[in-house]
Amino acid sequence: MRTRAQLDAIAGRAAARARPVAPAGDEFGPNAIT
Asked: Where do the segments described as Disordered lie (predicted)?
């Protein structure tokens, strides 16, 4: 079974694919704005 962290990471990557330009405050994935 996947952990919550893994599921969150998968969801973040899927969201990043769905919207190529990450909005300000995006917390997910390799394109996260810090």
From this structure: 1-34
